[in-house]
């Protein structure tokens, strides 16, 4: 049997995995990457630490994708977190495990992950060609037969794997080219929008809070006055609003709500481990210890310095007032603010700020067992191009690796 010739478009996580798997299974693979350096998004993901995957079981893992998760059941059943961790360990990457099942390189070195993948595909015999843009797909009799690159250069192949990524972080090369190519053969593109993105608030954050990071807090999301969901963990303030892991987790729901013109609010519980009675007891203990401290000093036992003035403004308390002079009603206002620090959400970051892209190629038009297009034979679509997205924690990168692995195997079948 003649060796199959496969073209992979895109040198990110899904494309590198697909190319390497296809090559190790006997195919002649040409990997086309439009940037000078492959895997640029991998190199910056997870703030440069690269959250490779998560140790959550499949059922829980899939839940993090919402409705789109069902599509991934077949791919995860064949190549999941255990296989991915073993893949990297075999190639010398030391793995570290963190809270929430998150899996990172032990040294927190995202560029190392990228280099390992690039070295692997080269060793497998992949013909890696950089700075080449694909402008069109070659289609003959309803089947993809190759690609058209710049200057009308045509490259023919037995199959094409489309792995160009979404439209987030365009400076890494993810500029949405794959959506146009998929549409050209009849695919439906679910409206693309930012996901895992910072939120903008009506309230002015100002320099006083910008850059402040908080841990172990709870954020409740309200849409049109109704509590929708919540997230616990870390949050950070930006000049324009809110960010951090729990805000990114909530952001997909926020983006869709704002697009439908709903009213959105995020309410922070800065002391989720303490109810109102315990908070009052805590304040009474502090009062006995430091009755003559001004409020600006007294409140340092309850919150970071940057939050004191917003708290005092809300409770209408002079910062020079001594703790012993604080009336019970004012203490009640402070407790309420600590449990209900409210922000009206008016917007969200652009695709340039988003970690992933929501929307993409409609999954009903893709075979979940092979990633082959149902619209055009011999075309396989993987990774962030698909309408699949999860919250933070390593889930999205695992989906990219898993769908790439499945397509790499399928094209050799």
Q: What descriptive keywords fit this protein?
A:
413 residues, alpha+beta, FAD/NAD(P)-binding domain, 2 domains, six-stranded antiparallel beta barrel, five-stranded parallel sheet, 19 strands, 25% strand
Care to describe what's here?
The chain has 413 residues and is of the alpha+beta class. It folds into two domains: 244 residues, FAD/NAD(P)-binding domain; 152 residues, no CATH class. 33% of the residues lie in helices and 25% in strands. The strands form five sheets. Strands 12-15-14-13-16-17 form a six-stranded antiparallel barrel. Strands 6-2-1-10-19 form a five-stranded parallel β-sheet, covered by helices on one side. A three-stranded antiparallel β-sheet has the order 3-5-4. β1, α1 and β2 form a beta-alpha-beta unit. α1 packs parallel to α6, α1 packs parallel to α14 and α12 packs across α13. The longest helix has 16 residues. It is elongated. The relative contact order is 0.19. The model has no long low-confidence stretch (mean pLDDT 94).
